[in-house]
Fold:
Amino acid sequence: MEKNQANELTALLRAWGEGDVEARDRLIPLVYDEMKRIAGAHLRRESNQDGLQTAALVNEVYLKLTQLPVPNLKAKGQFFGMVARLMRQILVDHYRTRSAEKRGNGVIFVRFDKVEAFSGYNAVDVFEFEDLLNRLGQKSPRWRNVVELRVFCGFSTVEIAEALEVSQRTVLRDWRDASVWLRRELTQS
Structure:
């Protein structure tokens, strides 16, 4: 995202946080392509997509955004972290429904074949991973944000640092600590 767009995004996020619903509606076209990229990354990580489409997932996220109370977002990282979280919630709800229809026979996995911190874990049950992220968020919301932005949004260290308004060193430390915690939890389960 170029600097002018990033500045416009920040201004729209602040306006939306102050109650300007039209700012939210102006925000979506600005971030639509990035939301599609994130949705595509989410769907590629799922072992059983059940015909879900990228655009449909983005549209579901938009509908959820319209139903949320006015969020207090000040940076694009907070917004995209929220988008990634909403996408995961939509997918988890979808998979719960599908799993119930199949009476538990349709286990869905999140693939980690391209996430270096999780080498050795080709896939993790989507419900188990959602639980892990929720517990990680209770331990450290910033760790969860770093994991979401790196794993689900594909952000670089520089982008995460800018998005969360922290140093790159902090992002690297948070990523290391969160990865260690997640690997330990995965090993114990």
About this structure: The radius of gyration is 17 Å. The longest helix spans residues 76-101. The chain has a mean pLDDT of 79. Strands lie at 109-111, 123-125.
